[in-house]
Structures are given as structure tokens and as C-alpha cells.
Amino acid sequence: MTATRAAAPITSRLRTADIFRVGASGPRARKTRTALSALGVSIGIAALVGVLGLSESSKSALLDEIASLGTNLLTIEAGAGFGGGDSALPEDALATVERVPTVTDASAVWAVDANVYRNEFIPEGETGSIQVVASDEGLLDTLNGELADGVFLDMGTSSYPNAVVGSVAAERLGIDGLDRPTYVFIGDDYVEVIGVLEEFPLAADLDRAVIIGKEAAVRFYDADERPAVLYSRVVDGSIDETRDILPATADPENPEEVSVSRPSDALEAQAAADEALTTLFLGLGAVALLVGGIGIANVMVIAVIERRGEIGLRRALGATRAHIRRQFLTEAVILSVLGGIGGVAIGVTATYVYATSQDWRVIIPQEAAIGGFIGAIAIGAIAGLYPASRAARLAPTEALRT
Amino acid sequence: MPMKQPSPAPSAGLSTSAALELHSVVKEYPGEPPVRALDDVSLRIDHGELVAVIGPSGSGKSTLLNVMGTLDRPTSGVVAVDGIDTATRSEKEVAGVRARKIGFVFQQFFLLPGMSAVENVSNGLLYQAVPPKERRRRSIEALERVGLGHRLDHPPNHLSGGERQRVAVARALVHRPAFVLADEPTGNLDSKSTDAVMNLISDLHREGTTIVVITHDAAIAASLPRQLAVHDGTIVADSAGDGRQEGGLR
Predict the structure, then answer these.
(1) What's the domain range around B168?
(2) Alpha carbon of B237: minimum distance to chain A alpha carbons (Å)
(3) CA–CA distances in Å: residue A183 to residues A69, A118, A171, A215, A256
(4) Does residue B143 fall inside a structural domain?
(5) Which of A251, A274, B97, B177 could form a disulfide linkage to B103, CB 3.0–4.6 angstroms apart?
(6) Is residue B250, in this structure, part of any structural domain at all?
(7) Non-local CB neighbours of B40 within 8 Å, separated by 6+ positions
(8) Which domain CATH number covers B146?
(9) For residue range A1-44, what is the model confidence (pLDDT) as tens digits?
(10) Is the Cβ–Cβ distance between A106 and A260 less than 8 Å?
(11) Mutation target among A4, A21, A28, A394 for the B interface, most CBs of B within 10 A
């Protein structure tokens, strides 16, 4: 052969930084399309990050609540709860339960056979499903309850017609504050409301109750002195064994009629149920991400068809097939990374806004943010494989023919 | 300014290497029977020449352009660009030959949207790994050379057709190729822009650039110093004389 030059370094080379620059040139020149195709991935990533963030935040809020309410509360009832007929615990049940060494605190609630109304003109049937009960002065402490307004019953007020209303009962009775003297009509008398309670997550029955002092209940409403429900706090390590001995302690004669429950179990079950729901939403997020990836593949296939001229030009300027493949692969990854960044931002913002509005601690699991980002890169790379190899296979002569 | 081209290496039977040499080039497309688009074409284009390749459509002109530009490989024969035989080279090396030795100007300009004139021109240096700063500096120089020093940062859609083609010419020149292949460079231009682009090509030729213009326009071809007429896959006439075609390839 004639004119050949041997060792000249003639291979085509593209700098690493230029691979990125070239890959970004397409998305940069077509901003709307870039935004729309990145949006698909954004939605998927945002769903994943948001779901994980919200579920973690709400779970931590719930766990905080459980922790603050305490998991060591045991509720002792005879039969079906207060107001449930004549089933009641023995009169001295509170005293015997308090004597159990592992019980640190106990309070009792007594049923009162009276109805409460906003005033004397309300027809008798319209009780609003509000129970009237009596309690001792320690109930609020035993339940770790909080007052929304006013004060709880004490030694002085519990002997006279004074009432504390539960959160739901307050709403139904139209009580929104105690700025002015407020009364409710119990039985045949007006009773002054001295306190409004916050919710009792561990004793939801009390939310729909109006509580009066035990002395007053006996004096004015002829209440049964046998308690309907006992609430007890137990030393943390001894909950199960205490639970076993409580029925016989509270009612030695009819221990089988006494049921002991642990209200925090229900909240823990709720946390577990939330987790199941989270898994479902994560699945939906993954589907959204997949659809976003398919969207990118779609856009890239169209780009390769539309940009034959550019592919031909670049080949004429010295790009190898590998350079073309890398360009389109990079482009797909750029789209998905933009989507990933947007998605993480949307997911974090949504979590922050919602968690803040719910007074939850904002928790963004790092796995969610980092995993979402890595997932986006992977989706882009996979979505770009086929379009990129199509672009690379295109012969320059064919690409330049328009 | 540094010349990227190494001086032609002396080799057996050659005093100087041509910008482009084709020797017994045959290009067949598969089929029954095979279509022979180029039939034993030999030609030599020396450094500094301005050559028109003219022929009607279907004459093999486009195939000749693709083979000369190493965009397509011949079925047999030799295509040597600035002394480098491309037949024995790998795909990466042939791409490297294009990146360093050949400048392309197309009828459709092929400027990339969303990129300024400078960025478009600097794409001509992209695939030989020239650093960005140097790319920009040389691109500005090239644009000034084609008279577009005042349009550096304009995107293609803010330029007239004639200006676009001048940007494309700057892109073809920026890496100082052994020759520029211009495929119907005035095919999409009005007569005024056509004159401007042809004047630019003549000016570049006077400054020493080797240019091959592929055209079907007899008037344009006639205005250039040398014409190669292609018909039915062979060169039927060469205004430089037959002896020139085969020169040095024996």
C-alpha cells in the first residue's frame, strides 16, 4: 500500500468533562421537553420520599404519643364498661388495686344515672350520647391527661355540683371556652363547668363524658358507689404479671367478669396498620417511577429519530459510535437525575409542610432521599440503553440524509 | 498559530502526500445484482486546491462524497487522507481522521439549536479532546475569519441563511483540516447569500485552504479552478488532465 502513516495518534477522543457537556446540550436546548420528561420521574421519586417521610414522621409522632401516655396503663372494667348495666366492681376495688405493690397509681370512674343537656329546654331524648360519670381527683394524673381550659376536680370542687367536660362532649354541648361562667344541665340542676379536657387517647370513652366529683355524684345523683372502671399505672417491667392478678384483686368473688385491657396496644396496632398502608403507597410510588422511566425512554427514542442530523453531524465531526452512545445515555441520566432532584425536593417539601401542620417532628429517612436519587439514576440509565444503542448504530451516511 | 497537521511523511514513491487520494475505489451496494455506485475511481487532490465535483443526481456523486469524507468505506480501493490510508484503520481511528483532517459543510448547515455560533463552531474541535478554553479561542478566530466576529453568541435561529452557512464553514475550518468537503453548500441559499458563501470559499482558497465543493450547479462548478465530472460512478472528465488523477499512486 502506498501513503500510510504508521504511529500518528489519530484516534478520536472526547474529554470526560465534554461527555457531560455534550449530554447536557440536548436537554439544555429543549427545556420544556426536558422539564416534562423529568417530571414523570419527579412524581415517582416524590411519592417515594413523601410516603417514607410522612410515614416515618407520623409513626414517630404516634410513638412519641404512646411513650408520653405510657404503655403501662391498664384498664380494669366489669363487663362492658361504665354505663353498661348493673355490672360494677366491688366498692372497695380501688383500694385493693392500689394495694398491689406493682401498681403505682390508680383512679376510678363511677357511672352516674343522669343525662346532661346544654340547658333545661333541650328535649329529654337528645343527650348527644354524652355520659355523665364521676371520678376521683387523681384521674387526670393517672391518665396523663391535659386540660384545654380551666381546672380539674379537687378536694373542694368534687363535693359540689361542678363538672369537667371531655373534649368531644364540650364540642357537643357548645362549650368553646370558660371565659364566662358556663353551666350544663345535669339531671334537674345546672352544674358549673370548671374544666375542659384535651383528648384522652388512652381512654376515648372519657372524651364523650361529663365528669363530676364522686362525692357530688353520690350526694346529688344517688350514684352507685361501686366503680365502673379502674385505671391503673403499673411498674414497667411487671405489666404482664400484674395484668394476670388484677381481676382477682379487683373482684375476688367474680374475677371472670372483670376484663383488663392495655389501651396502648390499640395505638401500637395503629402504628403497625400505618406501616402496611405505607408499603402500599411505596408500591404505588415505585409504579409511578417506572412509568416515569418509560416516559424518558419514550422521549429519548423520539429524540434519536428527530436528531438524526445531529448524530450524522457529530459522526462527521469525528464522533465514534461509542461517543454517540455515551451522549444519549448521559442525556437520559441527566433527565432522570433532574427528575430525581425535583422529586426529592417535592417529597421533602410535602413531608415538611404536612408534618409541620400536624405538629409532627419532621423526619426524612436518608435511605428515602439517597435511595430515591440512586433509583432515579438507575432508571435513567436503563431507559437510555435502547435509544442510545439505536443512535450509535445509525450509519453516518444514513443520518445525514434528510 | 500552531499547525496541527504534521508535515507529510515521505514514503515510497511519493514526494509529498496529497490532501486526498483515491485509488481504484469501488463501492458496491449489496443486491441482486449488486449496485456499483463507484467504479474504479482514482483521483488526487493536492493541498491548496479548490475543486468542484459535478454530476447529476444518481451519478455516484453522493457516494463519492461519503467515501472521500470517510463516512462510508469503499468496497475496495484506497482512500488516503493527508497520507493516511483509512482502509486499514479501525472505526475509532477513521473517526479520528475525520476529527483532525476533514472539515464538512452541508447543504442543511446542521447547526445545533440552543447553541451559540461559538459553541457550534467549537464542536469542530470536540472529538480531538481540545480543552474548552482553547476550543473557544480558536472558534472565535474561525468566526472572525468568516466575517462573523459580531455574531459570536447568536444562536442559529437568530442568523440568516448565509450567516448560518458561514458558521458551518467556520466549524469546518476550526480544526485546520487537510481539506474541506462542501456538499451543495449553496443549495439552501438565495442568490445573494450564494455569492457571499462562494466568495468566502474563494477567499479561503486564496489563503491556502483545500476545498472540495460537490455541486450539481454548472455555473458554480465553472467558477472554480478545477472540475471533476462524475457520471455513472466514474470520473468522466477532470479539467486538470488525466495524468493528474493517478499521479503518485503508482
Answers:
(1) 47-70+84-239
(2) 25
(3) 30, 8, 14, 19, 41
(4) yes
(5) B177
(6) no
(7) B24, B25, B26, B77, B234
(8) 3.40.50.300
(9) 444 444 456 889 999 999 999 999 999 989 999 999 999 999 98
(10) no
(11) A4
